[in-house]
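Page 47, continued from p. 46.
Same chain as before, 387 aa.
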Amino acid sequence: MATTDSIEMAVLIFVLLAASSVAGGRRGWNEAFSQEEHMEMERRLNAINKTPVKSFKTEYGDVLDCIEIHKQPAFDHPLLKNHTIQMKPETNLKKMSNRISSESSSSPPLPRIVHCPRGTVPIKRIQKEDLIMEKLISSSFLSKFSSSRYSYSNPSNQDGHQLAGVSTTTKNYGVQGSVNLWSPEVAVDEFSLTYIFAATDPTSGVNAVQTGWAGDGGKTTGCFNVVCPGFVQVSTEMPVGLILRPVSSYDGAQYAVKLSLELDRSSRNWWLHCGAKHIGYWPGTLFGTLADGATRGGWGGEVYGPPTKPSPAMGSGHFPEEGFRKSCFISQMKLIDESYHFFDPDDRTIRVSTSKPKCYDVKYVSAGGEQWYHRIYFGGPPNCKLQ
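Result:
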């Protein structure tokens, strides 16, 4: 039986293009790679991790480097060699109310603010474990699973990956969700995550942006785009891969973080926001048709575990029928229209899908007042037999 490790919650962002990669951490997998592969990873670490102006060590053991903004890993991407950094979106998006009712959830306090010197941004230092997870996951996961995630066309039989979520085929220029924070237990060869995404039709190749939180069986959770260059960090205080505490407890206090992905149509850049904070963006030059807007949006949960073993928990580890304070939720589900107003998903376009209903389920709710808007409950317990 695989042992479990305590995990941390992180705002986890990544972009999936024609060739994408996933990062994370796992202990005990070094033996899976040859000496030559380890040497190659060392070379990549030297290339990815830039010389810092200043460094911090977080209370969770991660190192944050203050890197000159023009020298951050994003600009290792060949399409961004002459990129002009956009410090904030030009679009004047009309935000909806941020009022929270007593029956809703609370936003967790932000961790200790990082104060990088002027002209620098905080970047989480990549470790070998990040590259190991990239190699282990990218070959078996993205090439086989990405299009199913964004279309829900056939979410079953996915080599240990399981989904429970909803998607819409509505034209949009951004998505939003208030994502409930939990800390599911997972083994060293598993992960459990919650996501929102914006994507184009996957039949012509995956073109998508996604954000959420993730729990994995190792020490490291972080931004996939620091491993695969492309995401431009602009926030001087809030790096991607930021660990959020506290997390929710069963039948107790609930915590959520509002995340949004928004297209700035003047620049064609896709921005990540956490609450009202501009974290950074994916430049439009990295995309095909997605730079002109998305045709799909989605919200849900996903897990991975070896198919021959019992599955990990998704969300809170409880089924959606248990409801608020017990099952994981994503509330205030919104899309952005061409006039840059938020609007509710059209129930007629919503597709509810789960790849293994006996293990994980999802419940879509389109009523409940302005404090909740459209929402889903989703998840399931660990140790469900997938075969």
